[in-house]
Design a protein that fits this description.
26% of the residues lie in helices and 22% in strands. It has a single domain, classed as Cytidine Deaminase, domain 2 (3-Layer(aba) Sandwich), CATH 3.40.140. It is α+β, with helices and mostly antiparallel strands. Strands 1-6-5-4-2-3 form a 6-stranded mixed beta sheet. Helix 3 links the parallel strand 4 and strand 5. The structure holds tetrahydrodeoxyuridine.
């Protein structure tokens, strides 16, 4: 039996201000997009901003439904919209901004498992990894260099070919 440790680098910025300009702006767009979330059931609002290789930014926010599973997370709204508007254009980075109507959220929220799988699909069909920046309403920003950092042993198209 062998054991292999799988680890990744989590970059922790003290605040949004510490981010490189391009990603500071991307996070601002995610914050702004969060304000249009439709989240009457969870009272948890999420905004996502997808930065593409052609420098376009595509936004999304969570869209809930009275039939709960019919709703969709901000990250998937954003990345599917990016795929629909700019097919084949690689994704450079995604910023995720989360807030709660119940408490002041001062820590980052990471994409859920379904969103990680959805983003993995885009990462695997482009040459470069997708950076992910995560933040609450205030406080630190977490950053990873690749989606696979958040979803090791990713299931992908290599199994289906
Ligand atoms: N949500 C997101 O939009 N993104 C995530 O990564 C985590 C959860 C949404 C789904 C639902 O509308 C609400 O947050 C509470 O789960």
């Amino acid at each position: 039996m062998q054991k292999q440790k799988i680890s990744f680098d989590l970059a922790i910025y003290d605040s949004q201000e510490e981010l490189p300009e391009e990603y500071k702006n991307l996070m601002s767009v995610a914050h702004k997009s969060r304000l249009n979330a439709y989240a009457p059931y969870s009272n948890f609002q999420v905004g996502a901003a997808v930065l593409l290789d052609n420098d376009e930014i595509v936004i999304g926010n969570n869209q809930e439904n009275a039939s709960f599973p019919s709703g969709l997370c901000a990250e998937r709204v954003a990345i599917f919209q990016a795929g629909a508007l700019f097919p084949g254009v690689p994704v450079k980075a995604i910023a995720v901004s989360a807030a709660s109507g119940n408490v002041k959220l001062a820590r980052p929220a990471a994409p859920c498992g379904n969103c990680r799988q959805a983003i993995a699909e885009y990462e695997q069909k482009q040459p470069k990894p997708i950076k992910i920046f995560m933040m609450g309403e205030t406080g630190q920003v977490y950053a990873v260099n690749s989606l696979t950092d958040l979803l090791p042993l990713t299931f992908g198209n290599s199994y289906l070919i």
